[in-house]
Write a structure and sequence with these properties.
Order of helices and strands: HHHHHH
Strand content: under 5%
Mean pLDDT: 92
Protein name: Stage V sporulation protein AE
Largest sheet: none
Distance between the termini: 42 Å
Pfam families: SpoVAC_SpoVAEB (PF03862)
Number of strands: 0
Keywords: Membrane, Transmembrane, Transmembrane helix
Shape: globular
Structural class: mainly alpha
Radius of gyration: 16 Å
Number of helices: 6
Amino acid sequence: MIFFWAFVVGGLICVIGQIMFDVFKLNPGVALTIFVVSGAILDGLGLYEPLINFAGAGATVPITNFGNQLVHGAVEEAEEHGIIGVVTGIFEVTSAGISAAIIFGVIGALLFKPKG
């Protein structure tokens, strides 16, 4: 059943994005910002963790999880190290994903002919 709910929740997030493009005529940068900020707000309100527990990859794969991770890391480290933990927590939690995106992007650019 977890696969079904992951598909439904991930699909609903994609539907929201498509509505932003088609109905509201938002560009991808604005839609991306809305998703990241909404994930951060949901985590700040304590609503994103239950969504992850319910939908699994349907909630962790979309870009909304990046906002969730930013706030989650900042709050977690702030509790442990104070105000400096806000900054270090953001970098600590998100560095692996950002590094992987950069590395695989470069590898993809080297292996394939990018259209520039």
